[in-house]
Amino acid sequence: MYSMTHKLLKSAWPLWVGVIIIGSASTLQFILLGRPWGITDGEVNAVALIGSIIMPEHILSTTYFEAFPPIVTYLLIIDVMLILGAFISAVLSKNFKIRIPRKKERLIQGFAGGILMGFGARLAMGCNVGHIVSGIPQLYVASIIAGMSMIVGMYIGTKILLRQVRSSW
């Protein structure tokens, strides 16, 4: 029993297992719900629901939310369950820890990166998960372009981070 628990919770799973699980979940969602897997629509609804409590007249008067009123949808529920599942997994594997970067500039970089990712997700009409897991398999041109752009961005970002790490040695 210990070895099975250790394999499931402590050891890293092989890449192919994750690919099969994510691919199957995406396919199942598309078959059952008729819509590909993505993250950003649920996030937009979450922010809009919170915003409609704080300033309802502003949120509900925007052109986007007049057409798509903020409601709790299965996409929002999937987002919440994704976060909850990650939390439970981290706790069960005894990996949960609140980590604060030693260098405060990392907080600024993370915040700026998050803003850019959010802006890019709305501009590209979908998040990286939606484009990679759902769009590219459907040969959606926007997803192919977004995927290539992500690869270029990751390459450049990795080069910048490696330069910073090497200069600090």
Can you walk me through this structure?
With 169 residues, this protein is an all-alpha fold. The chain folds into two domains: 99 residues, no CATH class; 69 residues, no CATH class. It is built from nine helices and no strands. Helix 3 packs across helix 6 and helix 8 packs across helix 9.
Give the low-pLDDT segments: none
Give the overall pLDDT as a whole number: 85
% residues in beta strands: under 5%
What's the main sheet like? Answer: none
Q: What would you report as the Rg, rounded to the nearest angstrom?
A: 19 Å
Tally of strands: 0
Distance between the termini: 43 Å
Overall, the morphology is globular
Specify the structural class.
Answer: mainly alpha
Task: Give the number of domains.
Answer: 2
| Helix coverage percent | over 70%
Our count of helices gives: 9
Elements, N to C (H/E): HHHHHHHHH
Question: What descriptors fit this protein?
Answer:
single chain; about 170 residues; mainly alpha; 2 domains; 9 helices; globular
Lay out the secondary structure:
Blueprint: H1 2-10, H2 15-33, H3 40-54, H4 56-61, H5 63-67, H6 74-92, H7 105-123, H8 128-135, H9 141-167
